[in-house]
Every structure is written in C-alpha cells, then in structure tokens.
From TrEMBL:
PANTHER family: HYPOTHETICAL MEMBRANE SPANNING PROTEIN, INNER MEMBRANE PROTEIN
Segments crossing the lipid bilayer: 37-56, 76-96, 108-128, 134-151, 158-176, 204-225, 237-257, 329-347, 356-377, 389-411
Protein name: DUF1624 domain-containing protein
Compositional bias (Low complexity): 277-295
UniProt xrefs under InterPro entries: Bact_Transport_Assoc, DUF418, HGSNAT_cat
UniProt-annotated stretches for the region Disordered: 274-295
Heparan-alpha-glucosaminide N-acetyltransferase catalytic domain mapped to chain residues: 36-238
Lineage: Bacteria, Bacillati, Actinomycetota, Actinomycetes, Glycomycetales
Length: 435
C-alpha cells in the first residue's frame, strides 16, 4: 500500500527505518521522492488511527456542539481518507505519472488484479469470521478492479469522474437503497457470498457500508492527486485551496441549506454526525459500531420512509457519516486532500518532523497489517455502544494506536515491510512471469 516508485527511494527508507546505516539527511527539493513517500505513510497512519477511533472510540452525542463536532471528526472521514489513498496507490502501482513500457505495464496490471482479488478474498473471509459489516477490504479490492481501466487518464478526466460519482452516484445510491429494484433483490438472492452473510456483489456495488457507486468518487479523487507533482509548491497550494473549498462546499453548504429549509432542524450538515432527522444515528451506528454482527446500513433502517418526505429531503441535504450524500462525499474529499497535502509538505520540508514522526510513518507503511490486526482485536474489547464511558472508550482507542505504533516501529527496525505487506508482495510476484 506504499509508494515504491524507485529502488533508490526504497533503499533510503529501508536505511532510515532499520537504522543499519545513517544516510545523509536529504535536502528538501522539487521532485524529491522521500518527503512524498513518508508524507503518504503519515496520511495512511492518520486514516488507520481514525478508523480505530470510529470502531472503539466514543459514539455519544455531546450537548456542547463544538465538542460534539470534534469528537465526531473521524467518523466517516477516516474511511474516506483510506479510500482516497487507495486511488492514489492504484496509480502508483500502475506506474505513477510516467508511462511504463508495454511489458512492465502488463506486469503491473496483472499485479494489481491479483492484489485486488486477494483483498476481496481477505475481506470476505474476515467478514464471515468476525461477523461484522465494517470490513472495507473487499470493497477496496473491487474499487481497484473497477478503476483500473482509468489509470492512464489525466487529472481533469479523473476529477470529472470523481465529481460525477459524488453527485450522480449519490442519487443512484439513494434510489437503489429506497426503491430496492428487482435486479438488486435478485442479485442478493442468488449471490452465495451474500447468503453466507458477507458482502456479495450487490452490497459491494450498491448497498454496503462502502458501496462502489458513490465511493468511486473517493477513488478517482485519489487517482487525480497521484497525477500531480506533490513536491511542487504551486501544486500544493492549489491542492490545499481546492481541498478547503470542497470541505466548505460539502459541510458548509449542507449546514446552510438545512438551516434555511429546516429552521431548528439541528446541525445535520455540520459533520457532527447528526442529520437532524434521526437518520444519522442509523448511518453512524452501522459504520462506527464494533463487532455488531449486523449486516445493515443506513438504508436498511429507512424502508418505511416516504422518499419524498421532509425527512428524506433533509437527509439528502445532510453530510452525516456514511450517508453517501453528495455533500458528505465532496466534504470528505476536501478533508482528505488537506490531510494528504499537509502530510507531504510537512515531511518534505522538515527533517525534524521526519525524525520525530518515524514511528508514525512506520505504522502507515504497514497499514494493511495494522488494519487486519485491529479487526481481530475488536473481538477482545468491550463494545463502544452508545452510553459507554467516554474516558474508557478513549483509553481503548489510545491503546490501539500505541500498540500499532510500537509494533510497527519495532518491526521496521528489522524488516522493510509489514507481515501482510510481505505476504501480498509474495502473492503478486507471479505477475513478473507475464510476457
């Protein structure tokens, strides 16, 4: 899941993480690879820690709106950042901004396909084993397969695709969830994976917790970011400006529209986790709960609602976590862009930050390992259901983060990749046989 564009940058990272040699501190420069690699690792670590929080952290609604908004920040946004980084990684795996030779491109494509199939298999196995609906890996693998044909597209094309899925995809997602068309019902009824209790094709595409129809907006956004020269100051400023604008348009416009159309209806569009109509609790509950064993999403709890009612309109104007609305998608993309550009800029410009944040970037470099490990650990911690002690939930989250950081840092002293990252590399190695 990390950027290994060049042998030289990979060797530099290995030297830094193992401590076996002390290479000269690289001078920040345009086009430098080190700051970009470590910056993306930092962003991945933040996404992983945010998903830890969403699964074990506090879920209560707080009376103070400022506190409530702060405590709800990771919900929905962490998994969205993870998906944007997936799109970015897809382009890097396909060759990055350069056009590889024909043979190398075929090998890279086969490697991506193998990786995607393995992620779908691993995600399905974890969902069946742990009896939970929060596993993103199968969705992640499907995203790779669906977006693979677009890896050679330019920034503008990818940006248009991202915006299209954010707007049109969110409407399609809403319609399918509410209308339950016959083809989706039939697909679920005849899908053996769905019948076993995991995420079959219907849920992966349309009705799951991370459905491809709206979530490809995140993937294409990440792919567009991967096409940019993140080492250039002008690009960073532009990306930060666009990210701030999208966040303001998504969360801010949602909040304004709800205030104007539904006076006294609450703070549903503020990103606080409440839609003001009671539906955000359903979306947050399914997306942020622990090992609930439930396969339901927000759509499963809405079958009795009139699609043209006040509640439904208010929901579509919200930006609550995992709602899949255009406002949430655009706002989350904006936040992801700010996190990525901030992480890359910080670690590209500051040698001190690179040194101090080494344990964090080590965790980001083995995000697959830590993600799977945290899913297993969720079976051994108390549920973070509403009403639990806030301090206890925060303590559990803290231990998850500290445990992941310590393991990753110690492991990186001796090995270049995480355990599952090594397994993935080995499993995709037959791609080299492609001729």
């Amino acid at each position: 899941m990390t950027d290994t564009d060049t042998v030289r940058s990979e060797r530099t990272l290995r030297l830094i993480r193992t401590g076996r040699e002390t290479p000269p501190e690289p001078t920040p420069q345009r086009g430098g690879t080190l700051g970009r690699v470590l910056g993306l690792d930092l962003a991945r670590a933040l996404a992983i820690f945010g998903m830890f929080y969403a699964h074990v952290g506090p879920m209560q609604e707080f009376k103070n709106p400022v506190v409530n908004t702060i405590m709800q920040i990771p919900h929905g946004r962490a998994s969205a950042l993870f998906a944007v980084l997936a799109g970015l990684s897809l382009v890097l795996l396909a060759g990055g901004r350069r056009t590889p030779p024909a043979l190398e491109r075929r090998q890279r494509i086969v490697k991506i396909v193998i990786r995607a199939v393995l992620l779908i298999a691993l995600g399905t196995a974890l969902t069946l084993w742990l009896r939970t609906d929060i596993v993103i890996l199968a969705f992640y693998g499907l995203f790779f397969l669906l977006a693979l044909p677009f890896t050679r597209c330019g920034v503008k094309t990818l940006a248009v695709l991202s915006a299209s899925f954010a707007v049109v995809g969110s409407v399609v997602f809403y319609w399918i969830s509410m209308a339950q068309p016959a083809f989706v019902t039939a697909l679920n009824a005849h899908d053996p994976i769905t019948r076993m209790g995991a995420d079959g094709l219907g849920r992966l595409l349309f009705t799951g917790l991370y459905p491809a129809v709206p979530w490809l907006a995140y993937i294409f956004a990440g792919m567009a970011i991967a096409k940019l020269d993140l080492s250039a100051k002008r690009v960073r400023i532009g990306m930060a400006s666009v990210g701030a604008g999208l966040a303001l348009a998504g969360y801010g416009l949602s909040w304004v529209l709800q205030k104007v159309l539904f006076a006294g209806g609450g703070m549903g569009g503020s990103g606080s986790g409440s839609s003001g109509s009671g539906m955000a609790s359903a979306s947050t509950g399914s997306g942020s709960s622990g090992m609930s064993g439930s396969s339901g999403t927000w759509s499963d709890s809405m079958s009795g609602f009139d699609p043209w009612s006040r509640d439904m309109l208010q929901f579509l104007l919200s930006a609550s976590p995992h709602s899949g609305t255009a406002f949430e998608l655009l706002g989350n993309i904006g936040i992801a862009m700010l996190v990525i550009v901030g992480s890359v800029a910080l670690l590209d410009r500051s040698a001190l930050a690179r040194k101090l944040l080494t344990p964090i970037t080590a965790a980001g470099a083995m995000s697959l390992t830590l993600y799977v490990a945290h899913l297993w650990a969720l079976n051994h911690v108390p549920s973070n259901s509403e009403g639990g002690a806030v301090t206890a939930a925060l303590a559990v989250w803290g231990w998850f983060c500290v445990g992941g950081i310590v393991f990753a840092f110690v492991w990186s002293r001796f090995f270049k990749r995480g355990p599952l990252e090594y397994a993935m590399q080995w499993a995709t190695s037959p791609a080299k046989l492609m001729r």
